[in-house]
Amino acid sequence: MANLEFQAYRLHGSPDGALPQGRFDTLSVDELSAGDTLIKVAYAGLNYKDALAQAGRGNVIRNYPRIGGIDLAGTVVQSADPALAPGQEVVVHGFGIGVDCDGGYAEYARVRHDWVLPLPRGISLLDAAVLGAAGYTAALSLHWMEHCGLTPDQGSVLVTGATGGVAGIAIDILSQRGYTVCAMSGKPEAESYLRSLGAAEVIAPPDLSGPIKPLMSARWAGVIDSVGGPLLAHALASLRPDGVAAAFGNAGGADLPGSVIPFILRGVKLLGINANSPMPLRRELWQRLATDYRPSRLALASRVIEPKDLPQALAALLERGSTGRSVVRFA
């Protein structure tokens, strides 16, 4: 395998501190980051973090050159772990791939065997890529929200940043489980799309130009938030007693200009969602993504692109010019 050559989309740093430059390079396996498991990549997802890395924003990548792509789905070529047989279909996300070590934007990836998760029965490689880190984050959010007592009969669940990849899958999963979903989006043209995913209501973001009241009309039983900032503070103030919010993004800012009053007077709960969770929990939730958390509308919320379109698609993602999940096909 050392002589195997393949194409990879790799980001290169600049000695003068300018923005990283992305290009397709011809590589050999020995040029990949260290690992004991070689995977032939079928698909890799496009994520906001990947878009930030390409644009040189957020200090995502510190060491260059680096193959981007924080998730991938493919088949095992060879592994030091006898449990990972050649030809086995697997998914990998997190653990620093695409950031601290080479990721999924290549025809082959090399990773540690204990980062590799065999696909549960019933999930195809394409499904796994569409789900990827985004689907896992959506499932993890709902898992912890239900752990805190959320049930469909308690009221509506608000999903912010609703046209994003995680949000679209979250809407799908929630609706399949009987929740009434309200999708919040600043794109009025996306209403029919969001309703097709299962949203019962679509609303525009509130006016956040003024101060946010400590408490507002109690409307939501739960919130799945990808935006952060003032919008999350507004949502927390609008949760019902014992309501629960799951927060995993900061597209609207990292500050949280809110109050402790919702926590004290209404007993609301704010859950921080870090998708880089331990492997036992990953196995459990991927199994649920194949069963009771299984989305039914992945095809509506996704598109497949070719490698040549990857740079432009990442740029569009950063500028909020895309909807749902995009995956790049390498196989």
Report on this model:
Helix content is about 25%, strand content about 25%. The chain contains 8 helices and 16 strands. The chain is of the alpha/beta class and about 325 residues long. The chain is globular, with a radius of gyration of 20 Å. Strands 3, 5, 6, 7, 8, 15 and 16 form a 7-stranded mixed sheet that branches. A 6-stranded parallel sheet has the order 11-10-9-12-13-14. A 3-stranded antiparallel sheet has the order 2-1-4, with no helix packed on it. It starts with a strand and ends with a strand. The protein folds into 2 domains: about 5-120 and about 300-330, Alpha-Beta Complex (Quinone Oxidoreductase, Chain A, domain 1), CATH 3.90.180; about 135-270, NAD(P)-binding Rossmann-like Domain (Rossmann fold), CATH 3.40.50.
CATH class call of the largest domain: Alpha Beta
* Anisotropy-based shape: globular
Q: Report the uncertain regions.
A: none
Q: Whole-number average pLDDT?
A: 95
* Relative helix content: 25-40%
Largest sheet, strands/sense/barrel? 7 strands, mixed
% residues in beta strands: 25-35%
Helix segment count?
A: 8
Q: Between the first and last Cα atoms, what is the distance in angstroms? A: 18 Å
Give the structural class: alpha/beta
Number of strands: 16
The CATH topology assignment of the largest domain is Quinone Oxidoreductase, Chain A, domain 1
Rg from alpha-carbon coordinates: 20 Å
Kindly give the count of domains: 2
| CATH-assigned homologous superfamily of the largest domain | Medium-chain alcohol dehydrogenases, catalytic domain
InterPro entries: Acrylyl-CoA_reductase_AcuI, ADH-like_C, ADH-like_N, ER, GroES-like_sf, NAD(P)-bd_dom_sf, Zn-ADH-like_protein
Domain Enoyl reductase (ER): 22-328
EC number: 1.6.5.-
GO molecular function: acryloyl-CoA reductase (NADPH) activity
